[in-house]
Design a protein that fits this description.
- Two copies of one chain form a homodimer.
- Chain A folds into two domains: about 5-225 and about 405-415, Aldehyde Dehydrogenase, Chain A, domain 1; about 230-380, Aldehyde Dehydrogenase, Chain A, domain 2.
- In chain A, about 45% of the residues lie in helices and about 20% in strands.
- Chain A has helices at about 5-20, 25-45, 45-60, 65-70, 75-90, 130-140, 155-170, 185-195, 210-220, 240-255, 270-285, 295-300, 330-340, 355-365; strands at about 100-105, 110-115, 120-125, 145-150, 180, 200-205, 230-235, 260-270, 290, 310, 325-330, 345-350, 370-375, 390-395, 400-405, 410-420.
- The relative contact order of chain A is 0.13.
Amino acid sequence: MQTPEQYIEQIGQNARAAALVWGVADAARKNAVLKELSARIRSGVEKIIAANQKDLDAGKAAGLSAALIDRLTLNPERIEKMAQRVDQVAALPDPVGEQLERVVRPNGLVIRKVRVPIGVIGVIYESRPNVTVDCAALCLKSGNAAILRGGKEAIHSNAILAQLIRESLQACGETPDAVQWINTPDRAVMAAMLKADQYIHCIIPRGGEGLIRFVAENARMPVIKHYNGVCSLYLDKDADAAMSVQIALNAKTQRPGVCNAIENLVVHEDAAQTLLPVVAQALVEKNVQLRADERAAAILKAAALPFVPAQEADWGTEYLDLVLSVKIADSLEEAVAFINRYDSAHSEAIVTNNPEAARIFQTTVDAAAVFWNASTRFNDGFEFGLGAEIGISTDRLHARGPVGLRELCSYKYLVDGTGQVRN
Amino acid sequence: MQTPEQYIEQIGQNARAAALVWGVADAARKNAVLKELSARIRSGVEKIIAANQKDLDAGKAAGLSAALIDRLTLNPERIEKMAQRVDQVAALPDPVGEQLERVVRPNGLVIRKVRVPIGVIGVIYESRPNVTVDCAALCLKSGNAAILRGGKEAIHSNAILAQLIRESLQACGETPDAVQWINTPDRAVMAAMLKADQYIHCIIPRGGEGLIRFVAENARMPVIKHYNGVCSLYLDKDADAAMSVQIALNAKTQRPGVCNAIENLVVHEDAAQTLLPVVAQALVEKNVQLRADERAAAILKAAALPFVPAQEADWGTEYLDLVLSVKIADSLEEAVAFINRYDSAHSEAIVTNNPEAARIFQTTVDAAAVFWNASTRFNDGFEFGLGAEIGISTDRLHARGPVGLRELCSYKYLVDGTGQVRN
């Protein structure tokens, strides 16, 4: 009987060996595996659904909520989408090998900085089984070996998907250990994984804040984190009214449950009397509950619009729902200070016709993405043109904002000399 | 009486506020502070030496080793060098604000990726007081706020240096909290610092492996690590003999106590009979002890050169001394496998006249810097043209290899629209 540490030691050694081989595979080899995988997913729909049914039965027996059961469910349509996403990753350019810089030093050394895979990436995720395939595809295309650890609710679904991935590697003559799947929900194994920094170069947690915090506090290796998104839209005194309505509606209501939706609306005092009633009216019509500070409350009251008073705790809350806090700011500077104090440095936007105000806002707001006259909802790998993403990083090191294939890479220096030695 | 958590909370809030202001300072403001600092260091030599004397007296009373006392010692020459390094940092280009990418999306959004400071950087270091000034200068020039925590042996020296830094900021009309210094050696304060990920965006430990490991295991925020350097020089079958001697000598003996010196010499079997005796002879003349595998031992014995047999533990050991392990490899591939197994992915070199062998070596060796016909000793921020460095990262995320001003930065996306919303 292996201990969790022995199990992870074995997995880690396999991954390291696979990473050294897979990391130098060219684009043709990588794409061949991905095409093989999408084909095997399509031809494997029946067995995927059968495995998934076991998870659904167990989940219902265990009393999982309807929302969790929905996340867990795979059907032919969702499986086809999974295969399509693998094909999309295959179609993306190979990030590995690109020359990032080249300098010739006075002593004649030629130094090239080139993009290489990170090495071994661990992914720890919760109940959505599609994460198994999505993350494997992104890690494979970026030349990394992956160690996947999913939630126990999806264990049968993940097992069959991991098997299809490994079969695809093998069918193409590649090492199946480029993707390994942790076949136990034992938390001691996850804990051992987080300590194995001699084998795993980076951990990506995908799930709720509790999971991410657990990983960040226990991992010895770097973690690419995706904490919550407390985002604001600021309507400047020179904001266009129609654009303000359109962007506020989009940023709050187009998909309220995601990280780049807004939670706070900040309005410049000079514009509030005219702007806020119009914007608020449109939001209220979309069933948005407004939580107003004192000055906003007075304006909403005068306009006979419904609201509740905002509490201090509202400003930093990610509602992920049709709820929006509203604050009046005396100045652009006060708006920026509010955002830098309460928001999570994720996605922020200003609506203004004044380019100077936009420039100040973009420079002084400390966030991964700062939008001028556009919705915060665009902070996304697809919308930024990166192709697929593994998440949106709220870290400042390595990757900030959307994490695509390039962000799953590191770099190395190749230095060519003619016998140079150091003095 | 404050708890360690309250103390760090206050320091963290100050740092965050300072980072927002200092992070948008232009190069002129930053350089003015650095010039002020180098002037104050020069005019403060006497009080720096007086403070340092207190540390030296305490250190001698506590029985510190001669080596530690030497590291701790500041004299007029060392203080002048410290001031010169500050001037050198002032002379480096400002990394902040540079546009890294610009794309125009089909929907008209203009997305710019620009370099910005990381925010708040914590530095935890040991007994060299010059680290206080070196790290402060690099953090200030890269627009970051710094929280410095030095070793207790240097507490008086660090106190006066931190005071000079803060006085320089104040004299230039800037917030002194851009650099804060932890005025207590209490380890509970350091522990609280490592948990304060809401304020500190990154920790850089500077010191021995024990310190780095402690920080990596306890920090909740990203850590830029500088673990040890187990580096190899590989002499290929097509290696030039004179160049092999020159590079082996330089990489081992020019400064054996540093991370980019070599610990292993790997020689291709086909070249070993002719090459190894010549290279070994030169090393032995420089008092290098050779630890040989069986085949190398036979060759050294035949050449009447001194050696000791290598043990398994030798291959992964960072001697930091005039000791070198010697291994014979059957092939380039075996040499690469050996390096990828035992070395610490820091700096590796091949000597060969065969460009194809060099290309394979550089591609398949997994290390921060891979040299062809040049000494590993060049893996260094100055030698790479980055200017000053804060260390050489053995991580693969964010920064790999020398960490200069650019590596002390993050980026953000500035997105300009004309009212775009997401479908």
